[in-house]
Each structure stands twice: as C-alpha cells, then as structure tokens.
Design a protein that fits this description.
Chains A, B: Pfam families: cNMP_binding, HTH_Crp_2. 2 copies of one chain form a homodimer. Chain A is α+β, with helices and mostly antiparallel strands and 233 residues long. In chain A, 47% of the residues lie in helices and 24% in strands. In chain A, strands 1, 2, 3, 4, 5 and 6 form a 6-stranded antiparallel β-sheet that branches. In chain A, β8 and β9 form a beta hairpin.
Chain lengths: 233, 233
DNA sequence: GTCCGGATGTGTTCCGCATCACATTCCGGA
DNA sequence: TCCGGAATGTGATGCGGAACACATCCGGAC
C-alpha cells in the first residue's frame, strides 16, 4: 500500500494543484510529497475511524470520500462529501484530540497523509502554508455554521435543493450534470438529516416540477434559479 | 467608551485568567492589554454585526453575550452564549472575511478587542499563543459539529435537556442552579432551533417530572442523571 | 443465463412541533 | 402608583416527515 519512492513525483504533481500545498512552491511541494505517504482505498473502505488518535492531515489526490459522524446509538450524519484536491483530518493539527468523524471512500480513492510533525515543520519554514491552513479552517467553521442554520430553518425540500446545488458546484459538470457513483439516496439523506424514503419523495417532487432530472445516480439540474429559490438563496 | 490608560492594568488582570492569553506570561499579558481597547456594553447592545468587516479578536472580560446568526429572512439562531473569560470573533484572524454572526450583550458586558495585526505580532513572538489559538479553533469546530448532529438526531426535549446541562456547566453554580438574567425563553428556543411555545411546554414537562425547577429565570437541575439520559448522553 | 443483496419507489399511520391566537404575569419607567 | 410592553403560560389546528412495511429494480457473483 505504501507508495514506492517513485510515487513521490506523482504525489507532488497532484499536491501542486491543491491551494494549501501550492503555497509551498515547487521545491516545497516536492519535500511535502516525500514527507508523507499515499495509499489507495476501495469503495467502502474506512480511511480513519471516529475516535482514532489523529496524527496526520490528509489530502485526497483522487476519488471521493464521505465524512461521517456517528452517535453512540448508531445514527449517522454525513457532514460532507470530498472530491479530488480536498483535504480532511485538519483537526489533528489543532490539538492532539481523537478524530471527530470517520472518513469512508465512496469510490476508489487515493489519499496522501502528512504527519502532524512534518506539517508543522513545513509551516515554520513557509508561513504562506500556515496562512492557507487558517483560510481552510475559516471555511470549515463557516460551512458548519451554515449547516446548523439550514437544519434549523429549512425544510427537507429546501435542504435537498441546496445540497444539490452544492454538489453540482463541487463535483458536477458545467451544464448542471451531477454524476455521483457510490453516493446512494441513503447518503443524501444522511447529508441533510432526513430519512431515506423522505429524500426519495423529495427528489420525485423536484422531478415532477421539472427542476431536476434523475437517471440512475446521475442528477441533472434543469432549473438552477428555481432550485436556489427553494433552498432559500 | 474607550478605556483610559489606567484601565490597561485592570484589563491585564482579567486577561491573565483566560487560557488563550495566560500563555503569554505576565509580561506578554500586559503588552496584549495595552495593544487593544476595552469597552462596556449595555444589555441589548450589539458588539458587532454579522456582515461587518472583522478585524479584531474579542475577549469577554465580564458579563454575558449571545452569538446570533441571522438569515436574510430574519430568522435567528443563537449559536452560543458566552460568559466571562470566553472569546469571540476568532474568524477575523483566519481570513479577512466578514463577521459570520452578530454578538449581542444579554447583560452588562465588558469586552476587550485586540486588532488582528497586534495579535499576529504577539503570536510570532509567543508560539504558545498560536498553540492555544489552534486549540480554541478545534473546540469551535467540534462544538459546531455536535450542534449539527443534535439538530439532526435529538428531539426538542433532548436538545433542551442537553442545553441546560451545558449552561449549568458553563454558567451555573456547583449545585445545578443556573441563573440566567437576560436570557429569555425565546433565546433558549433560538439556541436549540425550536419555537418559543414549544420550549415553554418542554420546560413544563421537565418540571412535571421533577427533573428541574424553574423560578423566574433561574433554573435548578434536580436530576442530572435523568437529564443526561434525556439528552442522549 | 440465475440468484441474491442492496438500492429504489410507494402506501399507511401517527406524532411532534410549527403556527396562530389568546390570557396572564411580570417588570421598568413616567 | 399606575401604565404599557415584553415575557410567559395554554389551547386548538394542521402538516411535515419519521417509522414501518412492502413491492420492484438493478447490478454483480457464479
């Protein structure tokens, strides 16, 4: 699983496209790539578990993963879905505390892990990296705040509309086509804090009003303006 | 409003009791106190507005404030209630982005504002301060995550029970007495994303089962174990 | 092709809580 | 002291969505 030496170059090529690491410059990116390890994961595999000790920051070089928060009772909420170029496990760097969520691959994934100590070294030498990291955290806090507000104020249909717009922006094509292999309706339900049957019905309702089209796991946004309105934007 | 020079000593005395600043040592705390300004606010006054440019980190030296997030439609959710020794406005330091929430005094408050540039200077000289700040952010992210999960999984009664336990821990006496002048039932409702009448009825229900006692705005927790169970702990 | 397990589509029932509409009590200011 | 506005307590109604229960459907293993 651990990447052989020549992998470092391929890792560096991917890291260079990620804002957080590109701040390091060409030389720094190469050093970062050598300072960590990359692994491949199959769909359904768990990259790390909620509660595990957290000692690394991860960057998703390719594929897709979901961020899952579970309660002791076994209920699950999906906090986010990450694609190529996004990072996770940031909290490990803030304090040494255990992972607050699990990361599960939803399709074949290639992830790069950089140990806390290595990252801190890099930050000392490249203040721009620290800056980028703080930006990252700012975005994280804002997103979580918005998510809480959405749960409080929007109904299921509104949250679903907003979710589809977000997914289209992050993982979709230019024409509103969102292809989501590996993401089931159960996942969508867990993303907006709803039951799976309710999500199904909400999707049907959007289809009936010609706001979206669904075929298999590909969703096409037909009326972005109406969806934005439905989502309170 | 701006503190006259001799105030810096009183500010320093308060800052020394705050983990974030105590990391600076006696000398550093004194410098920090001189680098910012403190002001007093009356109940209902707004310390800063959501959407304002954010250029300072605040420390609440005394009193109590609420963190309010508003939608364009005018709906409000109270993200947190802060007491003496807590900080707010952290996001201003991460990026230069506008305030993501408003801060409103719920009782007479004394707050200290430290400009971003000053704080960054201090951080450069005192790495321990940066460490503490990252801890702070970690706690913030964790709390927001939990809040989202609670909205998704707990019913109104559960969220209320959990809220009361939290408030008792932060602002209450040792014996489970939580005195909350300035905090109305509407505020409690906005803290858990519920309507005001529903909160009233939920409180009555807890009283009827002898889990709490209410007199005016003082709530006494009578059966902490049962409350914890009700809140899913 | 044949199975089988998981994902998807629907119907039915029921309950929590938002919403509206008041009565009542509390409190600060003139 | 009285007054007025805000904060509380309660009732009645309606609806969204959870929970449960199935009937397909689809895709991969063999």
């Amino acid at each position: 699983m651990t990447g052989p030496p020549h992998d470092a170059e391929r890792v560096a090529a991917e890291l260079a496209a990620i804002p957080l690491f590109s701040a390091l410059g060409e030389e720094g990116v190469a050093r970062a790539a050598r300072a960590g390890l990359s692994r491949h994961y199959r769909p359904g595999q768990i990259i790390f578990h909620q509660g595990d000790p957290g000692e690394s920051l991860y960057a998703l070089l390719d594929g897709m993963v979901k961020v899952v928060f579970s309660t002791e009772q076994g209920d699950e909420i999906v906090l986010n879905v990450l694609g190529r170029g996004e990072t996770f496990g940031e909290l490990a760097l803030l304090d040494g505390s255990p992972r607050s969520a699990s990361i599960v691959a939803v399709r074949p994934a290639w992830a790069f892990a950089l140990p806390r100590a290595r990252l801190l070294e890099l930050m000392r030498e490249h203040p721009a990296l620290a800056d980028e990291f703080l930006h990252l955290l700012g975005g994280l806090v804002r997103r979580l705040t918005e998510q809480a507000a959405d749960l409080a104020f929007l109904d299921l249909g509104g949250r679903l509309a907003k979710l589809l717009l977000h997914l289209a922006g992050k993982h979709g094509g230019a024409d509103g086509v969102v292809s989501l292999p590996g993401l089931t309706q159960s996942d969508l339900a867990a993303l907006i804090g709803a039951s799976r049957p309710a999500v199904n019905r909400a999707l049907q309702s959007l289809v009936a009003r010609n706001l979206i089209a669904v075929e298999g796991r590909t969703i096409t946004l037909l009326d972005v303006a109406a969806l934005r309105k439905r989502g309170g934007l």
